[in-house]
Amino acid sequence: MEMNQTQRLPVPKQVAWEALNDTALLKQCIPGCESIEPDGDNAYLLALTAAIGPVKARFKGRMALQDIQAPDSYTIQFDGQGGAAGFGKGSAHVRLDAEGEETLLSYTVNAQVGGKIAQIGSRLVDAAARKMADSFFTRFTEALGGGAQEAAAQEGEGSGQDKNQDGSQDSSQGGGQSDEPKRKRSWTAWISKS
């Protein structure tokens, strides 16, 4: 499995770096995380519960930080066992880039799973991994001072599209105007085309 993602954080780069190295904060943000304890230099023992498709298991594993280029990037090597559910191992390269008062966090994960988890199928495993990553970044962004609505607003600005309250997207750039005139214009444009 390979997964790439970029996330905008509402804090300067140094603050983001410190937060990524704060085990108490990470424990709060990682879905299902029960504990993160030091295990030598730049290494940690983790315990977490995760549900992947119909398989729910408690995983214990080790995470080590390597290739540390503070405050720009590091690589996380991980290896976890979930008993009869199977195992997961791999690496994640995490990079921070400053963008004014905000930080762009990019990561690439390469992972292998085995046991019952592998039998579930790659689509379910990928979907569960993406859901966990999304949940982590929602919590992480909120913990750094950006609320969920603020993060959603930044996400909408980045894509050039606004989301209405009903979840539909509006690609016009009229910002700040009510939905009524926008609908009228598009309806008028549609009539004039016919």
Automatic annotation (TrEMBL):
InterPro entries: CO_DH_gsu, START-like_dom_sf
Lineage: superkingdom: Bacteria
Coiled coil (UniProt feature): none
Annotated stretches, region: Disordered: 147-194
Protein name: Carbon monoxide dehydrogenase
